[in-house]
Specification:
Translation Initiation Factor IF3, single chain, 2 helices
Length: about 70
């Protein structure tokens, strides 16, 4: 199991999700992707993407200043 990090700070919808999609071929079952983003729609978008693709959203948090962090297990 590997842990990969993806920095999407400064990117606006739909770029953070497109960056996640671009990494899918490099992820193995059980791998975890940690994402940082400041796009206001990121929490809604990542939850919807995980639901559609069957990936496990371990968490999605806001630090109170509009910065989000999320973990997805593949």
């Amino acid at each position: 199991m590997a842990v990969k990090e993806l920095d999407c700070m400064g990117l606006k919808c739909p770029q953070p999700i497109l960056k996640v999609v671009a990494l899918v071929p490099t992820m193995a079952e059980g791998d975890i992707l940690e994402i940082k983003a400041d796009c206001p729609s990121f929490p809604t978008d990542i939850k919807a993407w995980c639901s559609r693709t069957g990936k496990t959203l371990l968490f999605c948090m806001d630090d109170g200043s509009g910065n989000h962090s999320a973990q997805i297990q593949f």
